[in-house]
Fold this sequence. Notes:
- The protein has helices spanning 3-6, 9-12, 29-39, 93-102, 120-135, 176-189, 207-215, 233-244, 258-267, 275-284, 293-305, 321-334, 343-351, 373-384, 404-417, 431-442, 451-469, and strands at 16-20, 54-58, 64-65, 68-71, 83-86, 107-110, 140-141, 147-150, 155-158, 166-173, 193-198, 222-227, 249-253, 288-289, 314-318, 365-366, 391-397, 423-428, 447-448.
- It contains 17 helices and 19 strands.
- Helices cover 41% and strands 18% of the residues.
- The chain folds into two domains: 3-303, Succinyl-CoA synthetase domains (Rossmann fold, 3-Layer(aba) Sandwich); 307-469, Succinyl-CoA synthetase domains (Rossmann fold, 3-Layer(aba) Sandwich).
- It is elongated and about 80 Å long.
Amino acid sequence: MDSKIKKLDALFNPKSVVLIGASRDSRSVGYGILKNLVSGCFFESRYCKPFGGRVYAVNPNAQEILGVKCHPSIIDIKEEIDLAVIAVPAKIVPKIMKDCVKKKVKGFIIISAGFGEIGPEGKKLQNEIVAIARSAKTPLIGPNCLGIIRTPIYLNASFAPSIPPRGPVAFLSQSGAIADSIIDWAIEYRYGMSTLISYGNRADLDVHDFLEWLYDDPETKAIALYIEGIEDGRKFMEVAKKVSARKPIIALKAGRTAEGASAIASHTGSLAGSYEIYKTAFRQSGVIVADNIEELFDLAKALANQPACRENSIAVVTNGGGCGVLCADHCSALGVKLVELKKNTLQKLDRTGKMHPAYSRRNPLDIIGDALPDQYEAAINTLLGEDYIHGLIIIQTLQTMTDPEKDAKVIIEAHKKYPNKPLICVYMGGQYSKKGAETLESHHIPDFNDVSKAAKAMWVLVKRGEMGKN
């Protein structure tokens, strides 16, 4: 890691943070960020905890806000400061930054808007703040951004109202609104994140800088990107190719149409470029392309939590024949191969003494609607024990005798026994399946509520395996 990238430690693992622009107005960004720093979230959730480092506030017109002493300026703070979060009017940002440089702050996050995205005057101001940061060799995120979240240290240096569950996926978003909305969604659907970075106008640091830092981050296993534009395509491809060899990268590119590209120009001031060019660049760099936000995180969840599939040779276990048929259709459409079960495998299944007399004896393996946990156990372990089967999709539909939690424990034990074969689960249902699904995902086994998502998740693990052979 070169010295420039090493300096990003101050942004993502700071020991002290100052908010410049703290406010007493509960409807303001300056209040929201400070509340996030001292409590973890604006809207309470089970994932919220206060930041463990020191928190300072700057507001020359207040003595104290949310229990944090306010200082007239950063110069008046005696202790060292790692990270400065700036949320003041754009025109005074340069002065504030110069004070931060005097204080030897190690990193900037500029929340404020009113820079390159508004036209020539804003661009001139943006160039000025970049010059200040680069002259001081101090990394800068933004301007015009939501901020960052780092779940391992409960750092919410943003005005997002909550914090996502801790997990192995890093999310980089050029759009603050997209990043903001994703957090609430991640809480609802258990998408765990290590890091969330909203980088806005990317005036100084761009996506390739964050990728370089995440390359060595032990908390991150996969990286999801929402991209509107890339300034230095060659540099992005060089870094993405290196990073994707170690950690999967999935990208959602906005601005695919002329109308979308035009909207981007007024949003973050980016040049969108041809979508086909981006797709080619992504493919050559080992980046997987997602078609929508939900797919972006579905694929990231699978890649972060399961091993690559060594061969395109998959089996499906289900207690519902119709669901197995749908899964087979989706797998076939994606090029995921459902292998024919060998005679010897069927004999092994028979010898377990657990199979229903009417079980399907083919792939998808329908173990019939009244399947109990011991039947799932026999089927799953028999199939995973076969050398020619390299991945398994497990479908559970709710019947009166179904036990989602006991089935989950069976699947978890099988995964421990066969850790090099990917497992994807489909607990089809709602509230009665939820505890079982949560149990699975607490043990890094992805669960989806639809067979089409499971098929796409297995597809991406097959693709990842193919990439590893090239």
